[in-house]
């Protein structure tokens, strides 16, 4: 699949996967900032993409920064619909106990492109039975 994009900042790299076959493409910060513990910020990436019809982009946290610093994406996964053409931005949060310094070019999140299927909703009087029942939140016990 080819993914077309534009960069509003030449200070950020083209999103790349770190290893062949990786699902996530690293997104970098296009601004410098410091996130205090518990603070949230909308961080621009300097990248806009044209996601093909039938696909969605998911903005997800980077596991390394999540475990070492507590950096995460508030609305993970953030959804980027195929028709969106604006700059990708990550809603970051500091779940750690220390301030997190982010510099231009730091990897802050990942973009995962996933195929989606169109859903046609059909209302019925009751749903078919399932041995999963109603234990709550899809729980198996």
Fold and architecture overview:
- The protein is mostly beta strands and 141 residues long.
- It has one domain (4-115): Deoxyuridine triphosphatase (dUTPase) (Deoxyuridine 5'-Triphosphate Nucleotidohydrolase, Chain A).
- Helix content is 5%, strand content 40%.
- The protein contains one helix and ten strands, in the order βββββαβββββ.
- The longest helix is centred in the middle third of the chain and has 7 residues, at 63-69.
- It is globular, with a radius of gyration of 18 Å.
Tell me the number of structural domains: 1
Radius of gyration: 18 Å
Give the H and E element order. Answer: EEEEEHEEEEE
- Give the CA-based shape: globular
Strand tally is 10
CATH topology (fold) name: Deoxyuridine 5'-Triphosphate Nucleotidohydrolase, Chain A
Reconstruct the topology from this structure:
Elements: E1 4-7, E2 24-28, E3 33-35, E4 40-50, E5 55-60, H1 63-69, E6 71-73, E7 78-81, E8 87-94, E9 100-102, E10 107-115
Keyphrases for this structure?
mainly beta; Deoxyuridine 5'-Triphosphate Nucleotidohydrolase, Chain A; globular; 1 helix; 141 residues; 5% helix
Short note summarizing the structure:
The chain is mostly beta strands and 141 residues long. It contains one helix and ten strands; from the N terminus they run βββββαβββββ.
């Amino acid at each position: 699949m080819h993914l077309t994009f534009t960069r509003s900042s030449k200070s950020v790299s083209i999103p790349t996967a770190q290893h062949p076959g990786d699902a996530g493409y690293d997104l970098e910060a296009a601004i410098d900032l410091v996130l205090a513990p518990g603070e949230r910020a909308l961080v621009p990436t300097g990248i806009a993409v044209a996601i093909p019809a039938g696909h969605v982009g998911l903005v997800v946290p980077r596991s390394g920064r999540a475990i070492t610093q507590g950096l995460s994406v508030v609305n993970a996964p953030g959804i980027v619909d195929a028709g969106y053409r604006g700059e990708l931005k990550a809603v970051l949060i500091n779940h750690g106990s220390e301030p997190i310094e982010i510099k231009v070019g730091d990897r802050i999140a990942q973009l995962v492109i996933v195929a989606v299927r169109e859903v046609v909703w059909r209302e019925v009087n009751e749903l078919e039975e399932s041995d999963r029942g109603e234990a709550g939140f899809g729980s198996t016990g």
